[in-house]
Amino acid sequence: MTISLCMIVKDEAENLPRCLNSVKDCVDEILVLDTGSQDDTIAIAQSYGAMVDTAEWGNDFATARNQSITDVTSDWILVLDADETLTAAGRELLQQLRSGEAIADCPVDNILAINLMRYEINADQSPYSEVSRLFRNRVGLQFERPYHETIDDSVMRLMQTEPHWQVILWPQPAIAHIGYGADVIAQRDKFARAAKIMAAYLAEHPDDAYICNKLGALFVSVGHTERGRILLERGLATQPTDAATLYELHYHLGLAYRDARLNAIAIDHYQKAVAQDVPAALKVGAWINLGSLYQAAQNSKSAIAVYEEAIAATPDFALPYFNLGIAKRAMGDLPGAIAAYEQAIEREPNYAAAYQNLGVALFKLGKVPESIEALQRAIALYRQSDPAQAERLLNKISALGIKV
Length: 404
Prior knowledge:
This protein has an eight-stranded mixed β-sheet with strand order 3-2-1-4-7-6-8-5, with helices on both faces. Helices cover 54% and strands 14% of the residues. Helix 13 (300-313) packs antiparallel against helix 14 (318-330) and helix 16 runs antiparallel to helix 17. The protein has helices spanning 16-23, 41-47, 61-68, 88-99, 152-161, 182-185, 188-204, 209-221, 225-237, 243-259, 263-274, 284-296, 300-313, 318-330, 334-347, 352-364, 368-385, 387-399, and strands at 3-9, 29-34, 51-54, 76-79, 84-86, 111-120, 128-136, 166-177. Among the domains are: 3-182, Spore Coat Polysaccharide Biosynthesis Protein SpsA, Chain A, CATH 3.90.550.10; 187-278, Serine Threonine Protein Phosphatase 5, Tetratricopeptide repeat (Alpha Horseshoe), CATH 1.25.40.10. By secondary structure, the protein is of the alpha/beta class. The model has no long low-confidence stretch (mean pLDDT 95). It has 18 helices and eight strands. The protein is globular, with a radius of gyration of 23 Å. This is Tetratricopeptide repeat protein. Keywords: TPR repeat. Pfam families: Glycos_transf_2, TPR_16. Residues 4-166 form the Glycosyltransferase 2-like domain.
């Protein structure tokens, strides 16, 4: 089997080398569509042997994606963005695909597309997403929707006429994505562009639950909670059957109702989110938020249960351990809280809040030297990232008569 990498780019000179270095030895050709770069993006792509085409940007990601795959000569197509890299697990998958051996016990000849798990490097609560980025090069498979473009609808249509095809999930994270940091999301121009494109599409396709979800989630993320909630409820009212869309609708409605301080409704939506038939790793954000709401309701036992679900799904993610520590401390289980904080720190060595809470728990157990050491570490880390918090913590500690 041969594989082509297809990308659309603009002014990606900083990110592109990292992306291409991660995948260059795993694909047979690289095709790049540049939509107006003013930096060295084109020259960098060509230095990796890429075939580069250019196009004027038309505010439609699906159109650009489809143009980028037009001249593919390989059997399979891999789609990446410049701010993504192929992981070791992703390279293993491509090697397996190239060899023609079965993947996830499914013969390659029966596989139409392979959905990939993507690790969101800068995500606060939901470290994984599922993306449709690896699929056969064949007529009928195409991207649709101008923003949050996907091949999923065309895959479903093809499977209805040719039912022997299968779509499988590669469970290990195959892509790492750096684009969801708070600084990126906060860019006003990106929000305005996304909102404009999706609103125009939704005006012509008012019952598209997928875009109701994406646009509603975008509004919630920038504080326009009521506008977002209305769109999310509208998407739910269309009665979508796709588990991934249902998960996201309920998850984002949980956020919206939590922001509106309607916690009971938020809990109901998070419970419905985690009940969906999606990979467990995708549910971590809902479990964490559900646990926080349980804690707010003084229900630490239920909070512990959902944090443990999150840990089982993503054992290398620090946040569920940290929250588990808070819940165990609330129940009076200081040794359990300490163990959880230590697990969080093991996974994220610069976790200032975990050191702070660890120090407090150790102090309550009478382990003063160990407590002081943890608090000193917390203050040092806060001074690097949040000097004001470092001073607040230092003042609180001093008020207790503790010298650090």
